[in-house]
Amino acid sequence: DIQMTQSPASLSASLGETISIECLTSGGISNYLAWYQQKPGKAPQLLIYGGRSLQDGAPSRFSGSGSGTQYSLKISDIQPEDEGIYYCQQGYTYPLTFGSGTKLEIK
Amino acid sequence: EVQLVESGGGLVQPGRSLTLSCAASEFTFIHYYMAWVRQAPKKGLEWVATISSSGTTTYYPDSVRGRFTISRDNAKSSLSLQMNSLKSEDTATYYCARRHTRGAFWDYWGQGVMVTVSS
Questions:
Q1: How many Cα atoms occupy the beta-carbon half-sphere of A80 within 13 Å?
Q2: Residues 20..59 of A with a Cβ closer than 8 Å to B: which?
Q3: What is the DSSP-derived secondary structure letter of residue B55?
Q4: For an interface test with A, which of B106, B108, B111, B113 has the most A Cβ atoms less than 10 Å from its Cβ?
C-alpha cells in the first residue's frame, strides 16, 4: 500500500500570506495526486488533480507541484474562506489512500 | 449541477447489516466510475469502494473486503453500498463520490450519510 505522509498537521496563517502543505508518498505515484479542501460539516472539495491541474471552479490562488514521491499544495494570498482541512490523496494504485490532513487556521 | 444524494444511514447493532443508497442526477451516470468514501468522527478520509462504469469491476480496501459490496443500477442512476457484519470501527459519515475522468480522484461528492454501529 502507498502510505501518505502529510505535513504540517496544522498551521496558522494571516490574510494575504502564502503557505505550502507537503505530501510525501512511500512509493512513486507519477503525479496521480489530488488535493481536497474540507470545511466543517461539509463534503471534501477537489482542488487539484494530477499533481498540478486546477479543478474547474477552484480559485487560481491554489496550485500544486511535485513529482515522484514529493508533492505540495501552495495557497497564495490566503483568504478567510480558505480555512479548513486539506487532504492529499493518491490515485495511482489500489488501495487509494489519503494523507492525514492539514488544518489551516486563518489568524 | 451534478447532484449526489445519499440515504439509508442510521444506528445499527454490531454484526448487523445496512444498505446505503446514492441517487445521482444531472450527469450521464453510466459514463462514470463511482465510489464510497468514509470519515469516522473527527478523523480523516478513508476510501471504501469503487465500481466501474459498467458495474463489472469492483475494488475494496482490506478493511471492508468480504463485508461490503458496492453495486449500481445504471438504468436508475443509483449507487448502493451493502454493509454486512458491521463493526464499531465502521461508524462514520459515508460519502458517495463521482470519479474524475482524469484519474482515481473524486470531483463531486454527496452531502454524506451517518452510520453509527453501536449496541
A1: 0
A2: 32, 34, 36, 38, 42-46, 49-50, 53, 55
A3: S
A4: B106
Write the CA distances from B35 to B38, B47, B94, B116, integer angstroms.
10, 8, 10, 20
Convert the pLDDT of each residue in B9-56 to its tens digit.
999 999 999 999 999 999 999 999 999 999 999 999 999 999 999 999
DSSP3 helix / strand / coil % (chain B, rounded to 5): 5, 50, 45
pLDDT at position A41: 94
- Taking CA–CA distances from B44, the nearest residue in chain A reads A100
Q: Which residues of B touch A34 (CB under 8 A)?
A: 100, 103, 105-106
Place of cell 452510520: B115
Q: Does A7 touch chain B (CB under 8 A)?
A: no
Residue of A nearest to B6 (CA): A43
Phi, psi for A80 (deg, rounded to 5): -55, -35
The Cα B34–Cα B55 span in angstroms is 9
